[in-house]
C-alpha cells in the first residue's frame, strides 16, 4: 500500500546538541535533514566553536550559538573520572560529576507550550520499566540486560545500585531545587514511568532487550547517514595488502592511562606475531595519543623489543596509528576482520550495520549495555 505524507503543515524546529562531541549531534542532525525534506524549517543550536557540525547538512537554515562550550580540560577530567567508575560502585560518584540540567528543556515545554523530543542512545533511565530487566539501563551490575540468567543476588544488587546512591540523590535534588528557586521557576517537572514528551531511542530491539513502550517512546535506530567518507588510496592499499586487519577505535572521550594503552598495543603485536592477524589500524585522537609512553617497549614473546615511539610514528608497515580514519569505510571492507571498540552508540550501530565482527571494551553507560 502506498503511503502519502501530508507535508502542508510546517513548523520551525530547533535541533540542540551541546556536549558529547559530533557523534552525539549526528543522529539529531540526520533527523533534521528528514524533517527539512518534509518542508519544515530546521535550525541548529550548539555551543560556541561547534557550529561547523552542521556543515554537511545544507538543509539547516540557521545556526544558534548558546555560549562557550565546556573547556577541554574540564571535559577531559570529567571523562577520566567516568572511566574509573564501575556499576558495582553505585551511581553516587557519577552524580558528583553531573549536573543533570536537561530539565530546562522540559521547562520550556511547560512554560511556553513548545513540544520537545529527546534523543537517547539507549533505553532511558526510569522510563518504561519492566519486571524482567533488573536495575536501570547503563547502571547494571555484571552485564545483566535481562534477569533470564541472573541469580537472585545479582537481581538484588542491580536494584540496590540506586539505593546506595540515595545520599548523592538527595544532595543533587537540593542543589537542583536551589538553582530553580534562584531562576524563579515555580513549577515542578513531572516524574513518571511514561513520558509526557516524545522520546526517540537511537537503537533497536535486538541490541536492546525487547519490551512494550508507551505511545510517546519510539525506537528509531540505527540512525546513520546515507553517505560516509570513502577510503583514500593509502587506506585502500593497506587493507588490500593485509587481509586480516583489526580496526581499533575506543571513542573520542576514552583516554586510557599509559599502562592500559601499552597492554592493548602489546596484545595487538602478539596477535600479529602469532599469525592471528596481519594488520592493525588504530584510530586514536590527540588527547589519548599523548598518554602513550613513547619511551616504553612492546615485548612480544618471539622477537625483538619494539619501541612504542616507532609504532606511533608508523615505522612498522603492518600497524597504522592515524588520528582519524574513515571508520565506516574501514568497517565495510571485507579485510577488516575484527573491530575493537568501546561500544558507544554510534560505533555499535555502525559495526552492526556493516556486519563487522566486534570485540567490545565498554567503560560506562550505553557502552556497558551494548557490550552485554
TrEMBL record:
The keyword Disulfide bond does not apply. The keyword Repeat does not apply. InterPro entries: UDP-glycosyltransferase, UDP_glucos_trans. Keywords: Glycosyltransferase, Transferase. It holds the Pfam family UDPGT. GO terms for molecular function: UDP-glycosyltransferase activity. This is UDP-glucoronosyl and UDP-glucosyl transferase. It comes from Colletotrichum melonis.
Amino acid at each position: 500500500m502506498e503511503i502519502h505524507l501530508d507535508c502542508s503543515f510546517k513548523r520551525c524546529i530547533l535541533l540542540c546538541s551541546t556536549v558529547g562531541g559530533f557523534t552525539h549531534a549526528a543522529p539529531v542532525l540526520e533527523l533534521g535533514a528528514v524533517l527539512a525534506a518534509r518542508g519544515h524549517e530546521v535550525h541548529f543550536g550548539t555551543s560556541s566553536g561547534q557550529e561547523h557540525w552542521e556543515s554537511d547538512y545544507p538543509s539547516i537554515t540557521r545556526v544558534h550559538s548558546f555560549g562557550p562550550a565546556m573547556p577541554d580540560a574540564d571535559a577531559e577530567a570529567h571523562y577520566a573520572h567516568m572511566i574509573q567508575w564501575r556499576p558495582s560502585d553505585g551511581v553516587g560518584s557519577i552524580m558528583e560529576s553531573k549536573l543533570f540540567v536537561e530539565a530546562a528543556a522540559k521547562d520550556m515545554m511547560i512554560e511556553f507550550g513548545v513540544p520537545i523530543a529527546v534523543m537517547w542512545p539507549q533505553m532511558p533511565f526510569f522510563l518504561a520499566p519492566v519486571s524482567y530487566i533488573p536495575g536501570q539501563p547503563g547502571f547494571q551490575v555484571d552485564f545483566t540486560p535481562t534477569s533470564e540468567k541472573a541469580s537472585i543476588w545479582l537481581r538484588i544488587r542491580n536494584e540496590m545500585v540506586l539505593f546506595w546512591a540515595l545520599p548523592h540523590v538527595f544532595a543533587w535534588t537540593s542543589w537542583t531545587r536551589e538553582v530553580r528557586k534562584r531562576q524563579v521557576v515555580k513549577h515542578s517537572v513531572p516524574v513518571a514511568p511514561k513520558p509526557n514528551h516524545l522520546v526517540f531511542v537511537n537503537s533497536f530491539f535486538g541490541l536492546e532487550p525487547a519490551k512494550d513502550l508507551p505511545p510517546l517512546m519510539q525506537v528509531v535506530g540505527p540512525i546513520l547517514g546515507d553517505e560516509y567518507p570513502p577510503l583514500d588510496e593509502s587506506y585502500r592499499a593497506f587493507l588490500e595488502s593485509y587481509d586480516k586487519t583489526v580496526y581499533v577505535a575506543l571513542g573520542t572521550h576514552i583516554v586510557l592511562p599509559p599502562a592500559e594503552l601499552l597492554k592493548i598495543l602489546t596484545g595487538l603485536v602478539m596477535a600479529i606475531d602469532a599469525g592471528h592477524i596481519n594488520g592493525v589500524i588504530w584510530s586514536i585522537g590527540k588527547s589519548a595519543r599523548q598518554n602513550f609512553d613513547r619511551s616504553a617497549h612492546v615485548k612480544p614473546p618471539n622477537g625483538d623489543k619494539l619501541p612504542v615511539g616507532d609504532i606511533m610514528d608508523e615505522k612498522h608497515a603492518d600497524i597504522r596509528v592515524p588520528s582519524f580514519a574513515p571508520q565506516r569505510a574501514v568497517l565495510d571492507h571485507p579485510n577488516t576482520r575484527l573491530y575493537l571498540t568501546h561500544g558507544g552508540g554510534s560505533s555499535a550501530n555502525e559495526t552492526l550495520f556493516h556486519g563487522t565482527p566486534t570485540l567490545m571494551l565498554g567503560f560506562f553507560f550505553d557502552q556497558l549495555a551494548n557490550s552485554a
